[in-house]
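TASK: fixed-backbone design
INPUT:
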């Protein structure tokens, strides 16, 4: 029984490492529409669920400081009134690793030339906690493998 357990457990370990984590991943998408002087940002996950109460930052074309910060409403919408023309930067972050970043071109009449749609650029970047957990898992996994290898060598030396 011992003869087939070790090769199979090694094969299973290798297979688990090779499974891409991106299979369960999903991203975000956004839409920007122009109203009467107002610009409305709508943020959704790729599953079409809304990004409710996500932190939103609006930066003006000069980019010296934030023009407006706040949270989306329960429908994933955020409204702002640009006061100058140029490319405005909109960032919507849900705090769990999903971030939508869009550039909004505003014309001289303070309106959009057309409605915009964009997909997330970050492709579901993991959060700080996920990175820390992954790092700890790798450290414990490598440590356990090294300890197993060391005890295996010691057992082989014993008569």
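OUTPUT:
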């Amino acid at each position: 029984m011992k003869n087939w357990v070790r090769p199979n457990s090694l094969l299973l370990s290798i297979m688990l490492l090779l499974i891409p984590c991106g299979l369960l991943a999903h991203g975000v998408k956004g839409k920007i529409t122009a109203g009467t002087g107002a610009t409305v940002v709508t943020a959704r996950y790729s599953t079409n669920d809304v990004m409710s109460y996500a932190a939103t930052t609006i930066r003006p074309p000069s980019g010296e400081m934030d023009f407006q910060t706040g949270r989306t409403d329960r429908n994933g919408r955020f409204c702002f009134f640009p006061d100058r023309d140029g490319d405005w930067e909109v960032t919507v972050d849900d705090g769990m690793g999903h971030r939508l970043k869009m550039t909004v071109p505003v014309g001289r009449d303070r309106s959009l030339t057309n409605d915009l749609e964009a997909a997330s650029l970050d492709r579901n970047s993991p959060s700080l906690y996920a990175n820390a957990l992954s790092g700890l898992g790798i450290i414990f996994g490598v440590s356990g493998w090294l300890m197993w290898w060391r005890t295996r060598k010691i057992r082989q030396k014993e008569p």
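COMMENT: Residues 26-125 form a domain with the Immunoglobulin-like fold (CATH 2.60.40.10).
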